[in-house]
# Entry
Amino acid sequence: MARFGNHNRLAIPRSASKMVHLTFEEQMESQKTVPPLITGDFTGKTIMVTGGNSGIGFETAKHLATMNPARLIIVCRSMEKAQESISQIESETGFKNAEPMALDLGDFSTISEFATQANKTLDRLDVLIENAAVGFNTDGYTVTKDDWEMQLQVNALGPALHTLLLLPIILKTAKQHSTFPRIIMVSSGVIYSTKISSEVIASPNIIKTLSGKEALTQGRYAETKLLNVMLVDKLTALLPQSVVPLAVNPGFSVSGLSRGAKGERAEEFKKMVVDYHAYTSEQGSRHVVYASHGGKNEEVRGAFVSFKLEVQELPDWMLTEEGKTSRDKIWNEMLEVFGIVDARIPTIVAEHLKN
Ligand SMILES: NC(=O)c1ccc[n+]([C@@H]2O[C@H](COP(=O)([O-])OP(=O)(O)OC[C@H]3O[C@@H](n4cnc5c(N)ncnc54)[C@H](OP(=O)(O)O)[C@@H]3O)[C@@H](O)[C@H]2O)c1
# Structure
């Protein structure tokens, strides 16, 4: 497991809320504490969870189903997987208002089609949970049909495009209902073990370089999770206060994420589950459930919610000039790519995100 939190204490407050800074050892110790399930009431509200068929996403959806949402959209790679998940949620909770939607984050055209469909069928979106991701990739270097390294696209670029295309519905929800919709990026504690290297930052295009076969990366999975937090930072700066973007670390949890680990890697993983007090997916999902409605909006807006359901300081590197420069460059590069992929993006940026 990547060592996270292994850096100096640097107290740069991001908001007025209390923030914690945990060392790696403290984070591992924190895994011994299982956070409570914070229940809530989503009456009349619409929630969307990507990756709702497995692990943390499924358990999150199941918990939220018990909190009476008007609509719970389960997003999976196929309608069949979403339907299976819905049947299981219904049989375990009795909830009948879950609906399936399909999208493959590794295929931009399906994200565009998804947004077109969502614009027709959703009249509001109160909680968007970008949870889907891939962990171990044992297939080696894999490129999507859009010509991006698979993990980078599925974990970072795809969720960013998906979120941006859904912004008009989210903003409409805030305005029409005077509410504070949340956009949740499910990130990870591994962000404390990584950064974008100076060499990559100096390259003509950071995301293209990160996508390349050459091992200039510090670990692809961790970088994609860092990009999730960078996206939250940009959205927080550019969206009106009525929208609450935040990132969450569900903690090290047993889920489908390790399914790609084979042989020695799989054995190593089994040992980690014991040594690092892994949560079950249900326990990990409690952090995501909390992110969907817990805490005061002004305290969790732009925050990284982690162990013990507390707001944790961002990695020191993200707060450096280099960290901020790479965040801004990556944002501009993503917008350029997305503008080519989907003609709605420039309008969404111009109309909804202040420059
Ligand atoms: N488990 C941990 O220790 C841990 C720790 C920190 C953060 N996280 C984060 O928690 C989130 C949930 O992961 P998990 O641990 O619950 O893993 P998981 O059980 O493997 O769930 C991942 C979900 O993502 C979906 N997905 C994968 N590729 C996709 C694609 N191309 N398009 C759409 N959906 C796709 C999967 O669908 P299929 O079933 O079709 O593959 C699955 O539903 C991830 O963001 C992960 O980074 C996990």
Summary: Residues 51, 53-57, 77, 81, 103-106, 131-134, 154, 186, 188, 249-250, 252-253, 255-257, 281 surround NAP (CB under 6 Å). Strands lie at 19-20, 46-50, 71-76, 98-102, 127-130, 182-186, 244-248, 304-305, 311-312. Residues 253 and 279 are 4 Å apart (CA to CA).
